[in-house]
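Long-time lurker. I teach an intro course on protein structure, and each term I like to show students one example going from raw sequence to a predicted 3D structure in token notation. This year I'd like something fresh instead of my usual example. Would anyone be willing to generate the tokens for the chain below so I can use it in lecture? Attribution to the forum is fine with me.
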Amino acid sequence: MESKTTTGQSKVQNLNISFLLDLSDRIDPKKNFDIYQRDLQYIKSVEKAFINHIKKKKVLLLNDQMQVFFDPIPKMPGIDKLSQQLKVNFDKSVNRMNILDVEKNFSEIPSKIYQNAIKSGHYVGSDIWKFFKNNVENYCIKEKHRNILVILTDGYMYHKKSIFLNGGKSSYITPAFIKTKKLTSANYLATIKKNGLGFIPFEYNLKDLEIIVLGINPSEQNPYEEDVIKQYWSDWFKAMKVKKFELQTTGLPSDVEIVINNFIKEKP
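-- Reply from a regular --
Happy to contribute to a lecture. Here you go:
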């Protein structure tokens, strides 16, 4: 687990929380028995932290939102309607029923989306790199808000439509790629620096965005796989000047909930 925090910033009271869900075959129960169930619990933990934040604010001060994104969009009937139901916006007109609706939707709809992908056996994959390239600034950052992006993924990055190389930098990382680059020993960091390895960054200044990555699930064949994955993500976020970030390996939902709560409650 790693984090990067800037200091000296006043706490922003308005939350803008975005989810980016990786619906690749990592959620296939045949491949990873309970990963999708853990994802659902992580999502619920974030939603609970958001609702707790809402309940503590004076109604007249409410200006908070939460939404869920995919890239690419799942090939599922009614996905647009379901996505709309996961767009939450609280202002001074909020009432108890609004809160109950959010709790119900975030308990039921993500499960429907995951189960549809699993049942169909058609995993659209996840193009996280392209989401950052095209959408992260427009979708996930709102003025006068504390902007938090929650990414649920195993830490690997790959999509067949986003395979790019620029010197030592790439738009992807897979177990085979890590092995090819000889990042399988204790000197992995020296190899990364020597060859300029890492994700291709974008010339963005994401100083108003905080990111928490949940569910990193490295292959057990390489004892340094987790370290390499986290180094790639960490260097990428630093290059784009992300305000604060945390990289969390998959764990029991009850344990990860503590990490989520601390991240969301913590001053940026």
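Some talking points for your students: The radius of gyration is 18 Å. Residues 2-265 form a domain with the Rossmann fold fold (CATH 3.40.50).
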